[in-house]
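Figure 2 data, in text form.
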Amino acid sequence: MSSERISKETRERLQDKWTAVVDDTRDFSEGVVLTLVDLYGLPERNVQAFKSCEGFIPRSGDFDLCLLDGRFAPGEMTGPEAVEEIRAENPGIFIVGISGDKEMQAELAKEGVDLNLNKFQLKDALPQILEMLSKR
């Protein structure tokens, strides 16, 4: 994967877009942040990781894209539970639900995520997601 998978114009339009990675798996969220910054050229200050939905929701109004895990630690809000609250804070945010579990994907879809992917599909879908984001 390289920044050549998105155009220079797309990279330029992404400079003022904000992306949140909401996932309690530190290795995954850090990897996505590094990919967006190092390979796709998003400004580091504009890509932030959150380990819980509760931590992200109050800040969700600042973001254009949310990559949202479905499951979190027991007792914490799940991705599907968070979607409505995220939309209340920021109706225009593009939410990508991330889960390999078909039942969780169905729950995320029911709650209104814009796109459902598993963690392996995300890598290949990032260029298209970023292209779409750059045009919003």
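Caption note: The mean pLDDT is 94.
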